[in-house]
């Protein structure tokens, strides 16, 4: 309650606008109306060809009453829970219990920007920013190009909601009593970010918490006590977060050193998608590089700025209105908050520039955490949050200007600057409109020569001129409003108008950032993915994807327009992974986009890619891969063409049958000794290796012996994701070899006793058997999962006890 001695600032900040959070939610629903109230769905980039099939396998495991521990469909079999890209224990999985699969999948994307807007609002309120100014900050954040760009990233989009809410919960835990209860909430939210672990975005959370801790300490009357509270909340919250997320973390920590990601990324990979300095212009100019949603990027010209591809984040647009208001924050009386927020903005942009920042290489080489994350442009999310908070401070200057001459002069200065810059840019637009030829030629000069023939430079030029005009107009209009606010009798109404102008600039421009595909096209199952399971062998087998043996040929999409959705349809119709796993297709070795496949699978893929085609086909024979998909002819006597399929392009998909491939499980009487993993790989891929009856094993106890043809047989009695049961008939002692990935957690029983599993043929599993008939069962029961489960359960119990404790105030 405001007392008689309250200042004007206190009164303005304490003004209640209970409708503000509801307005955020309603405006978000309206923004996503077509997404929410139609059958259309997201499809761009990795959504439908990577994350959608992974989600199918994950939810399928839950539907069978299983924990999602192992995925047999990818890269010779891979751990599933251990890979954080599955988000195996993220709360939005619960949506699949009550909603159709496709709608629950879509809702995961939509909920996070809505929650993120609310998070920014309540974070600003926790920082003692007025409700109306907090609404402005939340509007800018929720509808910013950066936040909406994360809708292309299923596994990373949670950060847009968690980042502001983690900041809010940290401040909440620092203030007042019941610190245990509040710290449990902070730890739970950080635990969700750990479950959705991605190194770069996790660093954004750490930077925000450190910035808020610094502000709390600077603003405290007793800084020693404040430092103690910060240390206590930070330490306890971190421990709780790791405990809550242990179910995920322990398994992931086991996987990382065993995966292709284990050694860390090299500098080129880690910094590949850095924010180019030109992207800073995109903060004020929407669609600076055109639009990405056309086949072959025909209306996009930014390849030379973005790793020869599209940018990782499609847009950084926050709008000229918001940028002008953030500049007005320089006149805010909240100097400590402004300083900390500006610091976060500078640090995040500094890091987002990545390879375009000379100091980033030093960080990469000397600070190990930077070697495990990639694509520094993700740091731009923290910069966007910082800009949103600066917008709130700028709006407070407007709200508090009525009786303060200095603030009115600030409005005049900032507004005049906005009008002047807007007029200058409008002049540039008018010149470019009447001299479009030079503009188009300059854009053409920035595009690599080999890509120019596929570009529609006229459309690109029109888009740039349209964006320039709109941005200049909003900048000039916002400037005029600030000038008018100098003498406006009701600052509140002017602040509301400025928020509306920011939303009007952001919403139309950013509606285009997340294109949709109709339900018929989204749920479309290509013929190849039904043909393979119905016509393949009865026992488990694998399929080689197009591009494994030969590069994908140049193709021309047969479509009525240039929408990128047709390219997505082509990928599915041409059998490219990983969409077929939803129909039970098991793929052979592939390039892993997340580098979280086992290092053995990755090295086999690299070896295959470097081999001559004849030798690569021989390797596929050893990997239980009797079916090969190709978009070009395979001239090899071992491969027989079975059928071709339409792909809505000038290319036809060819399905080949490969003779003499190994079954998933076989008996090997012969042994080749290898001194190391590298030697085992070299032995296994040699063309003269007798793979049909011999196994390569590592270890000093291994003795070479020749293989005998017909020395034994194996029959698979049961094959499930986490259990394999085989019957072995052996006339001599030897090994049951299962061509699934060797990985910790797989256990074997030979008849009624537990036996060890050896690494076989570099990447697979083998169990020694004596002569006679045996049953061998392999079950995946990783200790890492049960350890994580126990730690999470204990932490959850402690959290419940802490939340139920009687309230106590700070001593």
Overview of this protein structure:
The structure is a single chain. With 811 residues, the protein is of the alpha+beta class. It has three domains: 81-515, no CATH class; 520-658, no CATH class; 665-786, no CATH class. Helices cover 50% and strands 11% of the residues. It contains 30 helices and 19 strands. A five-stranded antiparallel sheet has the order 12-13-19-15-16, with no helix packed on it. A hairpin with a 3-residue loop joins β17 (758-760) and β18. The chain is globular and about 100 Å long. It starts with 7 loop residues before the first helix and ends in a 7-residue tail after the last helix.
Short description:
Mean pLDDT is 92; it is low at 1-7. Helix content is 50%, strand content 11%. It has three domains: 81-515, no CATH class; 520-658, no CATH class; 665-786, no CATH class.
Helix-strand layout with pairing:
Elements: H1 8-14, H2 19-31, H3 33-36, E1 41-42, H4 46-63, E2 70-71, E3 78-79, H5 95-98, H6 101-126, H7 131-142, H8 145-149, H9 158-174, H10 179-195, H11 199-219, H12 223-244, H13 246-255, H14 267-270, H15 279-282, H16 320-328, H17 335-352, H18 358-366, H19 380-399, H20 405-434, H21 436-446, H22 457-485, H23 491-510, E4 516-517, H24 519-522, H25 527-535, E5 543-544, H26 565-573, H27 599-610, H28 613-622, E6 627-630, E7 639-645, E8 653-658, E9 665-668, E10 670-674, H29 677-685, E11 694-698, E12 712-719, E13 723-730, E14 734-738, E15 746-750, E16 753-755, E17 758-760, E18 764-769, E19 772-780, H30 783-804
Parallel strand pairs: 5-6, 10-11
Antiparallel strand pairs: 1-4, 2-3, 6-8, 7-8, 9-14, 12-13, 13-19, 14-18, 15-16, 15-19, 17-18
Helix pairs in contact: 2-6, 2-7, 6-7, 6-9, 7-19, 7-23, 9-10, 9-11, 10-12, 10-30, 11-12, 11-17, 12-30, 13-30, 16-19, 16-20, 17-19, 19-23, 20-21, 20-22, 21-22, 22-23, 27-28
């Amino acid at each position: 309650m405001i007392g008689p001695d309250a200042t004007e600032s206190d009164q303005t900040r304490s003004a209640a606008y209970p409708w503000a959070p509801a307005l955020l939610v309603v405006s978000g629903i309206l923004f996503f109306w077509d997404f929410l109230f139609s059958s259309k769905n997201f499809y761009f980039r990795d959504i439908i060809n990577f994350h959608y099939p992974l989600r199918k396998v994950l939810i399928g495991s839950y539907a069978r009453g299983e924990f999602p521990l192992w995925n047999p469909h990818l890269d010779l079999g891979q751990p599933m829970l251990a890979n954080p890209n599955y988000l195996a224990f993220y709360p939005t999985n619960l949506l699949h219990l009550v909603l159709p699969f496709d709608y629950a999948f879509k809702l995961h994307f939509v909920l996070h920007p809505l929650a993120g807007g609310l998070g920014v609002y309540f974070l600003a309120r926790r920082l003692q920013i007025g409700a109306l100014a907090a609404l402005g900050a939340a509007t800018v954040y929720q509808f910013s190009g950066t936040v909406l760009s994360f809708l292309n990233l299923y596994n990373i989009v949670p950060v847009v909601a968690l980042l502001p809410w983690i900041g809010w919960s940290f401040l909440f835990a620092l203030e007042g009593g019941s610190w245990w209860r509040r710290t449990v909430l902070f730890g739970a939210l950080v635990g969700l970010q750990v479950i959705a672990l991605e190194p770069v975005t996790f660093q954004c959370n750490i930077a925000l918490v450190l910035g808020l801790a610094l502000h709390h300490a600077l603003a405290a009357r007793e800084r020693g006590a404040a430092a103690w509270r910060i240390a206590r909340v930070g330490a306890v919250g971190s421990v709780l977060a790791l405990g809550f997320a242990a179910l995920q973390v322990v398994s992931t920590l086991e996987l990382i050193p065993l995966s292709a990601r284990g050694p860390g990324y090299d500098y080129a990979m880690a910094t590949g998608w850095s924010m180019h300095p030109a992207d800073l212009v995109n903060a004020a100019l929407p669609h600076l590089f055109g639009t990405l949603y056309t086949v072959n990027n025909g209306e996009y010209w930014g390849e030379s700025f973005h790793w020869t591809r599209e940018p990782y984040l499609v847009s950084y647009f926050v709008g000229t209105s918001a940028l002008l208001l953030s500049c007005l924050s320089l006149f805010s009386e909240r100097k400590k908050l402004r300083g900390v927020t500006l610091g976060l903005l500078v640090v995040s942009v500094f890091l987002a520039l990545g390879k375009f920042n000379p100091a980033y290489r030093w960080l990469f080489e000397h600070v190990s955490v930077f070697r495990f994350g990639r694509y520094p442009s993700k740091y731009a999310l923290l910069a966007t949050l910082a800009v949103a908070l600066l917008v709130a401070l700028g709006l407070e200057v407007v709200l508090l200007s009525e009786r303060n001459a200095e603030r009115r002069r600030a409005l005049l200065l900032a507004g005049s600057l906005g009008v002047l810059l807007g007029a200058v840019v409008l002049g540039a637009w008018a010149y470019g409109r009447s001299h479009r030829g030079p503009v188009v030629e300059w854009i053409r000069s920035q595009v690599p020569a080999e890509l120019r023939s596929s570009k529609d430079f006229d459309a690109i030029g029109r888009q740039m001129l349209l964006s320039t005009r709109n941005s200049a107009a909003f900048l000039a209009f916002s400037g005029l409003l600030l000038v008018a606010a100098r003498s406006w009798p009701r600052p509140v109404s002017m602040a509301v108008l400025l928020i509306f102008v920011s939303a009007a600039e952001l919403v139309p421009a950013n509606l285009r950032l997340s294109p949709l595909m109709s339900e018929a096209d989204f749920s479309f199952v290509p013929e190849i993915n039904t043909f393979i399971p119905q016509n393949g062998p009865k026992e488990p087998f694998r399929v080689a994807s197009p591009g494994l043996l030969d590069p994908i040929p140049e193709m021309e999409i047969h479509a009525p327009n240039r929408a990128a959705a047709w390219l997505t349809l082509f990928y599915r119709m041409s059998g490219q992974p990983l969409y077929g796993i939803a129909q039970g297709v098991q793929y052979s070795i592939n390039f892993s986009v997340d580098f979280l496949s086992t290092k053995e699978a990755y090295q086999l893929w690299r070896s295959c890619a470097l081999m001559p085609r004849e030798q690569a086909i021989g390797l596929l024979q050893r990997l239980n891969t009797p079916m090969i998909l190709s978009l070009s002819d395979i001239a090899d006597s071992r491969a027989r063409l079975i059928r071709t399929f339409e792909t809505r392009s000038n290319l036809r998909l060819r399905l080949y049958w490969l003779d003499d491939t190994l079954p998933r499980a076989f008996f090997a009487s012969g042994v080749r000794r290898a001194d190391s993993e590298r030697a085992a790989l070299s032995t296994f891929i040699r063309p003269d290796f007798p793979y049909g009856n011999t196994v390569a094993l590592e270890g000093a106890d291994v003795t070479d012996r020749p293989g005998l043809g017909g020395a034994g047989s194996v029959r698979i009695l049961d094959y499930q994701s986490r259990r394999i049961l085989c019957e072995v008939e052996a006339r001599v002692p030897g090994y049951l070899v299962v061509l699934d990935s060797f990985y910790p957690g797989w256990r074997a029983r030979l008849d009624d006793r537990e036996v060890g599993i050896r690494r076989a043929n570099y990447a697979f599993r083998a169990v020694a058997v004596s002569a006679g008939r045996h049953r061998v069962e392999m079950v995946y029961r990783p200790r890492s999962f049960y350890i994580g489960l126990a730690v999470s359960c204990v932490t959850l119990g402690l959290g419940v006890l802490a939340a139920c404790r009687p309230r106590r105030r700070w001593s």
